[in-house]
Amino acid sequence: QKEWVVLGHPFSTRLSHVYNPEAEQSFEFLLFLDCCWQLLSQFPSSFQFTETYLTSLWDSTHITIFDTFLFDCERDRTLAENVSYD
């Protein structure tokens, strides 16, 4: 999480969770997950995570149950948490 979320990877922009005609769609996080899966398939005993974990991460980027991959930065996440719906 610290490598992608805390350092401010623009998930919302890159994964098109929010429509923006000027957004630069790029699936580099998903490509990274695919690369990890390929390596895990070749060297299963060399990693401390499983295929199930990678699949859960992949699903979490598409199904917006958790807010981990919904925002572009920590500031956006904090602002969304503080919104009141009066």
Explain the overall architecture.
The model has no long low-confidence stretch (mean pLDDT 79). The chain has 86 residues and is mainly α. The protein has helices at 2-6, 11-14, 28-42, 51-62, 74-81. α3 runs antiparallel to α4. The protein is built from five helices and no strands. The protein is 51% helix and 0% strand. 5% of the residues are buried. The protein is elongated.
The string of secondary-structure elements, in order, is: HHHHH
Shape: elongated
Measured between the Cα atoms of the first and last residue, the distance is 32 Å
- The total strand number stands at 0
Beta-strand fraction estimate:
under 5%
Number of helices: 5
Q: Mean pLDDT, as a whole number?
A: 79
Residues in helix, %: 40-55%
Residue stretches low in confidence (pLDDT < 50, at least 5 long) are: none
Structural category? mainly alpha
Biggest sheet layout: none
User: Measured on Cα atoms, how large is the radius of gyration?
Assistant: 15 Å
Family: Belongs to the protein-tyrosine phosphatase family. Non-receptor class myotubularin subfamily.
InterPro entries: Myotubularin, Myotubularin-like_Pase_dom, Prot-tyrosine_phosphatase-like
Pfam families: Myotub-related (PF06602)
Protein name: Myotubularin phosphatase domain-containing protein
Give short descriptive properties of this protein.
single chain; 86 residues; mainly alpha; 0% strand; elongated; Myotubularin-like_Pase_dom; Myotubularin phosphatase domain-containing protein; Myotubularin; Prot-tyrosine_phosphatase-like
